[in-house]
Design a protein that fits this description.
Blueprint (H helix, E strand, L loop, with lengths): L2 E4 L6 H10 L2 E4 L1 H20 L24 H12 L3 E4 L2 H15 L8 H12 L3 E2 L2 E3 L8 H8 L7 E4 L2 E4 H8 L10 H6 L3 H31 L9 H5 L4 H14 L3 H4 L9 H4 L1 H22 L8 E3 L4 E3 L7 H28 L21 H17 L21 H31 L8 H11 L12 H13 L4
Parallel strand pairs: 1-2
Antiparallel strand pairs: 3-5, 4-6, 6-7, 8-9
Helix pairs in contact: 1-9, 3-6, 4-5, 4-9, 9-11, 9-14, 9-15, 9-17, 11-14, 14-15, 15-16, 15-17, 16-17, 17-19
């Protein structure tokens, strides 16, 4: 089993994907351990020798920042913080994303700017390595002061509270400690705040969504190429000269990919009766390309975020400083997360338009892609389902980051709502996948009506593999199982 060493080295989004996908274990590097210990030692000495109040360490939280806490209550203060802030509601955060949350929280604490004890961070590593998934609820975070509510649920099991999913069953944090013979962590000053302050919930959703967005963006090009050939479309809009005069990177990449995918198509080389294709085919480079550029930008921002310390206060031993500031504020990632929702919504939007064209009974294709329409409705309602997903996406793509509701007696008077943006993005990603699966279902059916002419070798390969799981539809039959199989195909078929 491969082990990933937690260190100060750059942690990429792709690396996170591999860690989760391959079931890799985590281990703190010696350097990370040293940084954690050093920061904690500095903080303890500072508390012992400095009489000045330190926010969240010797004071209350939020608007209670002016309430002094006695030294005999510093630990209880942190325990109370985690218990009181665990106010999540709604559906659970999926286990894959919970695991990313754990990884990101460990990574952030390992930099040695948070003041956590080593045993606390080590216990989070044990959670990760033993497939312990704290039960975290999706709703409750305002995206500043960080993801307080979801991170409270993530960390409750550290002190033997809350719930976890372990070996397929939901059990209490107390029972987990008994099963694993772990002693609940005794939190020291500042630790609860270090655990709860931060953007790891938003960031985990963003990391998962970016990995999925890259996959779906690749698929969108392949499916669009199949749809174009099935619709008897033209290749001219993808000629490189067109895109060099408007040289957006994503646009150039998409046009090149479409040319490569369609190289050698008999259908493409057949004489066309029409001069021009609808926008949903002709403008694939411009739309799909803009999505690629958006993914690239969002990735660059999230990449910085997951390699940062995002709690408060920031403990800087080298500078002899403990500063209460605002690194927990989710605005830097809330805006890009909203942007990605818009982009993925558009990827689904243009795909649905291609579906509509394929079932419309034009360009030599039968109405609703069935040989005997009338007694058969064929693929009529697949477009309805795609339209439903697209319409919902448009609602979900409304930016969350434009909203702010003051909290904590107006001490926290501007928040990012980045967590809501992340939840919506998660839903948009799934809806986009469904629309692309439906387009593939339709495109494969339409392509069969072009026989004996064949598409390109690349498209025929995808079509051939797809036909192993989803058949040609001769007469009306149950369609929802085929749509589900199409979704699973997008997840399992190796995109080359």
């Amino acid at each position: 089993m491969t082990t990933h060493l937690i260190s100060a080295e750059h942690l990429s989004i792709e690396r996170i994907g591999n860690i989760i996908r391959n079931g890799e274990k985590l281990e703190l590097s010696d350097d990370a351990k040293q940084r954690i210990r050093r920061c904690r030692t500095y903080l303890d000495k500072k508390i012992a020798t400095n009489g000045a109040p330190v926010y969240g360490v010797t004071t209350g939280f939020g608007s209670l920042c002016n309430v002094s806490i006695g030294k005999d209550q510093l630990s209880q203060l942190q325990i109370n913080l985690i218990k009181s802030h665990a106010c999540g509601v709604g559906e659970r955060v999926p286990n894959d994303i919970v695991k990313i949350m754990l990884l990101l929280k460990i990574q952030s604490l390992s930099y040695g700017y948070s003041g956590c004890k080593l045993d606390t961070v080590q216990r989070l590593v044990q959670f990760f390595n033993n497939d312990v998934y704290p039960v975290v609820y999706r709703q409750g975070s305002l995206g500043a002061s960080g993801d307080l509510v979801p991170l409270a649920h993530l960390c409750l099991p550290l002190i033997g509270l809350g719930e976890v999913e372990y070996q397929g069953k939901v059990i209490s944090g107390e029972e987990l400690c008994r099963k694993k013979r772990w002693k609940p962590i005794e939190l020291a000053s500042k630790e609860g705040l270090a655990l709860l302050n931060g953007t790891q919930n938003m960031s985990a959703f963003a990391v998962w969504s970016l990995l999925e967005a890259r996959r779906l963006s690749d698929w969108a090009d392949k499916i669009a190429a199949m749809s174009l050939d099935a619709f008897d479309g033209r290749i001219e809009p993808f000629v490189d000269a067109v895109h060099q005069v408007r040289p957006h990177q994503g646009q150039i990449e998409t046009a090149k990919k479409m040319r490569e995918l369609l190289e050698g198509s008999q259908i493409l080389n057949n004489i066309k009766a029409h001069v021009q294709d609808p926008y949903s085919f002709r403008c694939v480079p411009q739309v799909h390309g803009a999505v690629k550029d958006t993914i690239r930008y969002v990735r660059s921002v999230i990449d910085i975020e997951i390699n940062s310390a995002t709690d408060n206060p920031t403990v800087c031993p080298d500078d002899d400083l403990i500063i209460s500031a605002g690194n927990f504020h989710g605005e830097p990632i809330a805006l890009p997360i909203d942007f990605l929702s818009i982009a993925m919504s558009e990827l689904a939007n243009i795909a649905e338009r291609r579906i509509y064209r394929l079932v419309s009974g034009t360009r030599g294709l039968p109405s609703f892609l069935v040989a005997n329409p009338g007694v058969n409705s064929g693929f009529m309602i697949t477009q309805y389902t795609a339209a439903s997903c697209v319409s919902l996406n448009k609602s979900l793509a409304m930016p969350s980051s434009v909203d702010s509701i003051p909290s904590c007696q107006d001490q926290e008077d501007h928040v990012s709502m980045g967590a809501n943006a992340a939840i919506k993005l998660y839903k948009v990603i799934y809806n986009t996948e469904r629309v692309l699966a439906i387009e593939l279902f339709n495109a494969a059916q339409a392509l069969d009506f072009r026989l004996p002419l064949h598409s390109s070798p690349a498209i025929c390969q995808i079509h051939q593999e797809f036909r192993k799981v989803v058949p040609f539809i001769l007469n009306d039959e149950l369609m929802y199982p085929h749509i589900e199989k199409a979704i699973q195909f997008l997840r399992s078929y190796s995109v080359k």
